[in-house]
Design goal:
By secondary structure, this protein is α+β, with helices and mostly antiparallel strands. It is 54% helix and 15% strand. The protein has a 3-stranded mixed beta sheet. β1 (26-30), α2 (35-44) and β2 (51-55) form a beta-alpha-beta unit.
Length: 91
């Protein structure tokens, strides 16, 4: 294996693990009264890079939702793409 091939292998490995890291990110939605406690627990668990805590008034007290926002956005984009492909324009 030449030096350039080794570089490309390393670069592909880095891209792979970077994608894994990005795909593992989640957003935790919780009631405002719980937000600081949950942020502290996330930080204490060493998961600050993966979990983002968002306080929302629409989340009931004592409830948390963990969402993959990137997957939801990707699904919305795909749905729009499908709708645009299937759209018919009549003369």
């Amino acid at each position: 294996m030449d030096d350039l091939s080794a570089f490309h292998t390393m670069l592909n490995d880095l891209r792979f693990w970077n994608q894994i890291h990005r795909d593992s990110k989640r957003t935790v939605y919780c009631a405002p009264a719980q937000a600081e406690d949950i942020r502290r627990a996330v930080e204490d668990a060493g998961m600050k890079e993966i979990l983002t805590v968002v306080a929302s008034r629409i989340v009931p007290d004592g409830t948390t939702y963990v969402l993959d926002v990137q997957a939801i956005e990707a699904g919305q984009r795909e749905a729009m793409d499908i709708a645009m492909r299937n759209m018919r324009i009549w003369p």
